[in-house]
Automatic annotation (TrEMBL):
SUPFAM superfamilies on file: Acyl-CoA N-acyltransferases (Nat)
GO function terms (MF aspect): acyltransferase activity, transferring groups other than amino-acyl groups
Protein name, entry field: Acetyltransferase (GNAT) family protein
Entry keywords, A to Z: Transferase
Limits of the N-acetyltransferase domain: 174-320
One Pfam family matching this protein: Acetyltransf_1
InterPro entries found in the cross-reference section: Acyl_CoA_acyltransferase, GNAT_dom
Length: 330
């Protein structure tokens, strides 16, 4: 058997093979993360991968003329302010080979050459959290983690101490209006927390804070709150998930922000609020909750990752601008 791996450009004849490999990848992750659930998601993969093959950049790996893997990036993006890049979504790779690290290494080498020839500097790649060989290949290749996607099964209880001095409630929109000032203040604290060391997100996209407040009034968003002495001291929100493969799953929802007033932190209130929200969500027939958070935020990591399971990471790498375009041998 010839062990040589040969990479070729994306070819529509192999869309079905890629769909199968992407599905196998997902199924592999569900073995470690049962909360993800198993669905008939073939139509999702077919439509997404067809688009990737039509408009994207990537490679298919062959061994003995059989496809053993693929890696695909969406069409190169240009934000207009000088950032040109390419993103490989979570459904943008699949490997059918015992040597996953080696196959992804070959695929990335070939795909990255073309991406850099097209002056794309900012690379983003989504990888399953338990795909360790693939993850290692990127980490060793100077990629670093940026965000993670986590999920929990709402049937799993969140351990939390009784908080009898506190009142937990789901707010209706009249109450969100009534507590406008407090909601904005809590949200301001969150943004400030994200702006300072060690996170350093500028959060300009979330400013002015008053505009974000309007989102809390949306009918899609549920707000779970905790009060102490009639004062709002914490909030957590849920809204339809923006995780692509879960959008059509009527039993899935997303959670966005969580914040506890700073002088109330560290004594189990966040956990108690999450437990309250989890129960409320469970009672309305939701089985799965998804959260995306920045791995750069140690508090978010400590909090979300304690109660949820990581199933994906977004890895990023900036290529030296001097190396973009066609590099000629010297
Ligand atoms: C995250 C936050 C809501 C947690 O609320 P809290 O009441 O302090 O949390 P709890 O006391 O219930 O802690 C529950 C678990 O969260 C984790 N956690 C809480 N604070 C943490 C911190 N500063 N660093 C790391 N992990 C932390 C721990 O795993 C903790 O369990 P443990 O005490 O058994 O170790 C609160 O710290 C906060 O509002 N932080 C600022 C905003 C933020 O970072 N939000 C997350 C991003 S959206």
């Amino acid at each position: 058997m010839n062990r040589q791996i040969i990479c070729k450009p994306l070819d529509p004849n192999y869309i079905e093979a890629a769909v199968e490999m992407a599905q196998e990848n997902y199924d592999l992750e569900t073995q470690s993360v049962t909360a993800l659930g198993r669905f008939d998601n073939r139509a999702f993969y077919q439509s997404k991968i067809k688009k990737l093959f039509e408009n994207g950049i990537g490679r298919i790996a062959f061994q003995n003329n059989e496809p053993v893997g693929f890696l695909a990036f969406n069409q190169i993006f240009n934000t207009g302010n000088g950032i040109i890049g390419a993103t490989s979504p979570l459904y943008g790779y699949g490997i059918r080979n015992e040597n996953r690290g080696k196959v992804i290494g070959h695929l990335f080498q070939a795909a990255a050459a073309e991406i850099c020839e097209k002056y794309a500097r900012s690379l983003r790649i989504n990888v399953y959290a338990h795909d360790t060989e693939v993850l290692n290949m990127y980490i060793m290749g100077a990629f670093s983690m940026d965000t993670t996607e986590v999920v929990r099964n709402t049937a799993v209880k969140i351990p939390s101490a009784d908080k009898n001095d506190f009142i937990f409630a789901e707010l209706d929109k009249t109450q969100v209006l009534e507590y406008r000032k407090d909601v904005i203040e809590l949200y301001r604290n969150l943004i400030n927390h994200l702006r300072v060391s060690p996170i350093f997100y500028h959060c300009n996209g979330f400013l002015p804070i008053e505009d974000r407040y309007e989102d809390f009034l949306s009918e899609d968003m549920r707000i779970f709150a905790v009060f102490h002495n009639n004062q709002l001291v914490g909030m957590i929100d849920s809204e339809p998930t923006d995780i692509e493969f879960a959008k059509t799953d009527s039993k899935a929802i997303g959670m966005g922000d969580v914040f506890i007033k700073s002088n109330y932190r560290g004594c189990g209130l966040g956990a108690a609020l999450l437990a309250f929200a989890n129960n409320g969500i469970r009672e309305s027939g939701i089985d799965r909750v998804f959260v995306t958070h920045g791995t750069i935020n140690p508090t978010a990591r400590g909090f979300w990752d304690k109660y949820f399971v990581n199933y994906a990471y977004t890895m990023t790498r900036q290529i030296d601008p001097e190396m973009l375009g066609i590099i000629k041998a010297i």
